[in-house]
Amino acid sequence: MRVVIAGGHGQIALRLARSLGGQIAVGLIRDPEHAHDLTAAGATPVVCDLERSSVDEVATVLRGADAVVFAAGAGPGSGIARKDTVDRAASVLCARAAQQAGVRRFVQVSSMGVDTAGTPARGDVFGAYLMAKKAAEEDLRARDLDWTILRPGGLTNDPGTGRVRLGPPPIERGSVSRDVVAAVLRGLLDAPHTAGMTIELVAGETPVPQAIARLEAGRTRSEQPPVDG
Predict the structure, then answer these.
(1) In the chain, how many domains are there?
(2) Cis amide bond preceding 170, omega within 30
(3) Domain that holds residue 186
(4) Any domain includes 193
(5) 113 conformational bin, left if phi > 0, alpha if psi -120 to 50, beta if neither
(6) pLDDT, tens only, 100-118
(7) pTM, entire model
(8) Residues near 59 by Cβ (< 8 Å), separated by ≥ 6?
């Protein structure tokens, strides 16, 4: 399996690259100086600035991949403008490029709270972030791709327990380790029957493989309760 990770130098992306092991991970980065970190994580770095690249340029990188994981984000300290250019526009760009390159599997990292996002007040950076994620989700759902949208809760750097509460929205708000988010992404790449699902994720009691297996069991989103023991 060849997996292209957009936002390849992000904390979740680097963890995902390490977890892929013998799989081939390609990380898209903006800064060439980050290449060493990706190599150390077992990924192949490709310099591709998603705020400046064309669909054709990104499609060239994606061609031949089995899956795309969109894990890019403008990050803390960025302003409202970059919430739009990265969290929304870069996701749209990658989804368009995936279609052009013939890569059907697309896993998007979004955020809990998107469903309650309203028009942000002037200067409300977090509101702009949620609106950008919401727009990216809406764009992806309209595309002919085998997409899965993952909405983690508040992210922490705590050691991952490997146990989750995972299910269609809404689930109770909470936090989750970046280690666990990466583990869930890794599992979703091997779970094709989660295509077409929007999934929320917080720390819980169910081991990740069991939680994903339940999602794949064939129940519709409307019938499926959160997986938590």
Answers:
(1) 1
(2) yes
(3) 2-215
(4) yes
(5) left
(6) 999 999 999 999 999 887 7
(7) 0.92
(8) 97, 98, 100, 101
